[in-house]
Amino acid sequence: MLTLNLPSSRPMISAADKEVLLVTNADLRESANVECWPVQNTFEVKLTQALSSRFGITLKRAHGYKNDKRHGFISSQREGSDLFASIDPQAPVIVLLTAWQYSHHLAPSLAKHRGPVLLLANFDGTWPGLVGMLCMAGTLTGLGKAYSRLWSAGFDDEFFFDGLSAWLSTGQIRHDTSYLHPVDATHPASATPAWAIGQRVGDYVLQHKDIIGLFDSFCMGMINGVFPQKALVDIGMPLESLSQSALLVEMAKVPQSLREECLAWYEARGMRFQFGTDPATELTRDQVLEQCAMMIAMARFTQRFGLTAVGVQYQQGLAQSCAASDFAEGAIGSSERFPIPDESGQIIRSGKAIPCINEVDMGTAIPQTMLWRLLDALGLPAETTLHDIRWGSDFEGTFYWDFEISGSVPFEHLKGGIAGATGYRQPAMYFPKGGSSIHGQGKAGRLLWARAHYEGTQVLMHIGTGHAVELPAAEFERRRRATTYEWPLLNCTLDGVGRDELMAGHQSNHITVAYVAEDQLSDVLRAFVAQALRQNIQVLVAGDAVKLL
Fold first, then answer.
1. Which of 411, 414, 434, 452 would you label with 94, given CA atoms 20 to 30 Å apart?
2. Torsion angle of alpha carbons 405, 527, 142, 206, nearest 10°?
3. pLDDT-based confidence at 10, cuts 50/70/90?
């Protein structure tokens, strides 16, 4: 006779008439959750008041404040799963996001929730709920879950109230995403020489494969950054799965003399490191020397496995083991790079950037690697990087984005190159072992940007163009202090794509950028679109970029 003994369920949490449930999600790292909680609490009060005074709706918290943790966030997948197991599956749920959040805490449950779901974010540089919301949005899109998204700087503007009203009355918010234009092989640009070049590059990739090597995967809860294997195979870009433990072993083989030679090479070219003496709070030479060993080890793995691109997960695991990966990632992604010898003394890929996939995000690995392949084949500067869509604000009547990666970019993307870079210690709250960032101001120029996401096993890619600008020193400093001071910052506009368009339609917290000269941009765009289509990727061209085709 079978006996069943399952844990007892919690009492059901439901929403009465004129009630909406609130769920809040944030980091896996409790130090960050404590730091971010006061801002979250402020926006909960704002939302509660807006719902009550404007709509007569009561906001009901589905989970409580944790006295022992000193915050009221969901902070693990287990906690999120247990919570939703007790939530009425038909209840309307607002997920309020005011900080970075690990989407996998909630996404598996939200994907099966039958009631309306609203992802609501503050729009702020210091407390970037907008970044977390875009990550969760891309995640739910990949999981096939219908949802709504909304954002606001202060929860007090008509855009916010109109969106909230629509969701409360219909269960959905319909944003205008007509800035995205589907393009296929019948487009008139298919008759151009540039299109034929892109097709040839796509054929090469499908035949020869551009292998992406990632040291572990699934970074910081980004389900949107973990693509199905079939999706990668179908576009000719399979995964080489590597272990971060093997990276540590390879780093240990790098002799001290080679580490010192590497650091001296960058100092001789003008990079300034803000060295101190206390490794717990300051940047030390030993930390940067360890980062040099990581770059050398990464390059050796790249050669050994015949990889086109490489990336390190870092944030879980290595964060407790060695200095941050950021200096290694930016430096290896540069064409001007310390000459890295293999075990026999041969220099690895001299003069060529090795695309580095920050945070092992496959959705940026695809456009980064494709752009590198295309630009390198054309003999053009081929450095690529991802950025967080961190924030943006007006300056002299124009909205400029703040794109800010969490540590480093290729030196070629900075004003002044290596000599324009400063190394700061990575913030101790997230990086207990320290390590240098590569900070600098993004240089002015024309950009091609892209982002891949998946629906089922189909890869889709948004492609657009933009202008990187060098804002005046005082305005750049204001934005640095409003975001993360130690990290590189790129200010730009996107052609024909405003703030609310990107927030409505983008499927990630990340965006890939490459610099392309003005007189070559149209041809490179055509070739890149043709390459993507040839590699079985559905293409949507964004904003005014469609006019360049």
1. 452
2. -110
3. confident
Tell me the sheet residues that pair with 469.
491
Domain that holds residue 286: 183-548
Q: How many Cβ atoms are within 10 Å of 63's Cβ, its own excluded?
A: 19
Please identify, among 170, 200, 230, the residue that sits at the C-terminal boundary of a domain: 170
CA of 525: how far to CAs of 181, 209, 296, 380, 447, in Å? 14, 22, 33, 13, 10
For 234-284, the pLDDT digits (tens) are 999 999 999 999 999 999 999 999 999 999 999 999 999 999 999 999 999
Contacts of 414 (CB under 8 A, 6+ apart): 420, 421, 438, 440, 441, 442, 443, 488
* CA 283 – CA 140 distance, rounded (Å): 38
Does residue 14 lie in a domain region? no
Question: Does 218 fall in a domain?
Answer: yes
Burial of 470 from C-beta contacts in 10 A (0-12 / 13-18 / 19+):
middle
Q: How confident is the model at residue 1 (pLDDT cuts 50, 70, 90)?
A: confident
Residue recorded with tokens 């969901």: 74
Note the pLDDT of residue 417: 98
User: With bands split at pLDDT 50, 70 and 90, how would you rate the model's confidence at 306?
Assistant: very high
DSSP letter (8 states) at residue 283: B
Three-class secondary structure of residue 338 per DSSP? coil
Looking at the structure of the chain, the number of domains it has is 2
* Pair 532, 461: CB distance under 8 Å: yes
From CA 68, how far away is CA 204, in angstroms rounded?
56
Co-location of 72 and 202 in the same domain? no
Q: Where are the beta strands (DSSP E) in 204-270?
A: 212-215, 239-242
Does 487 share its domain with 386?
yes
Distance CA 391, CA 403 (A): 7
CA–CA–CA angle 330, 335, 336 (5° rounding): 85
Do the domain assignments include residue 5?
Answer: no
CB atoms within 10 A of CB 71: 23
DSSP per residue over 68-106, as a string? TTTB--B-SHHHHHHHHHTB-TTS-EEEEE-S---GGGT
Cα 177 to Cα 49, 138, 174, 436, distances in angstroms: 30, 15, 9, 39
Cβ proximity of 217 and 360 under 8 Å: yes
Amino acid at 264: A
Out of 113, 137, 170, pick the residue that ends a domain: 170
The upper half-sphere exposure of residue 487, i.e. CA atoms within 13 Å in the direction of its Cβ, equals: 23
How confident is the model over 491-507, as pLDDT tens digits? Answer: 999 999 999 999 999 99
Digit-coded pLDDT (tens) for 426-470: 999 889 999 999 999 999 999 999 999 999 999 999 999 999 999
Q: Provide the token pair at 207.
A: 């035949």
Does a structural domain hold residue 287?
A: yes
What pLDDT is recorded for position 166?
98
Is residue 135 helix, strand or coil?
Answer: helix
